[in-house]
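Suppose a colleague, Dr. K., hands you the sequence of a protein chain of 179 amino acids and asks what its three-dimensional shape might be. Before reaching for any lab equipment, you can write down a predicted structure in token form. Begin with the sequence itself:
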Amino acid sequence: MTESSVTLQEYVESYVPGLVSKRLQEKPIPDMEGTEFSVQLVLKGEKNLVYGISIKDAREITVHPGGLENPMLEVTIPEEVIRPLVDMVSSFTGRKQYDAVTAAKGTVTFEIGMPGNWTLPVTIKFNGADSPSVTISASSQDFAKMATGELSGPMAFMQGKVKLDGDMSFALSLANLMP
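The predicted structure, expressed as tokens, is then:
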């Protein structure tokens, strides 16, 4: 099955678990025994699909159509960006990010400036908490650099590449989510 030949439902239910399992086998994450990471994925679009994704011990991934109760993260994104987002996010996970997610409580909205002069909104709710909240705005290039560790969030902020609106201390607490 190739990524481009599957429906959105097949992509989330089959391709994503296979991709994550493959990446975890290639690069196991140490010290993750006894952990469980859960995310509710809300795909806004024609069908407004909801999925729960659980990853146990950084080895076993399960996709639950319809969602989960009390997920650690709730991510709401337009359905057309799920494929590139999964590819980017699945490449930088570790114990540091897991610990940061379990500790975070609040909502962050990323406003990602895309080529062609439009903005992609991505909202992430941590551990069911609506507040505190912050909006983080930057170009897609700068977000990509932060996601790969090429650019630190604080440095991007000091250089004016990232704009913050809302709870600054909450925004600073999210720094450990990046590699």
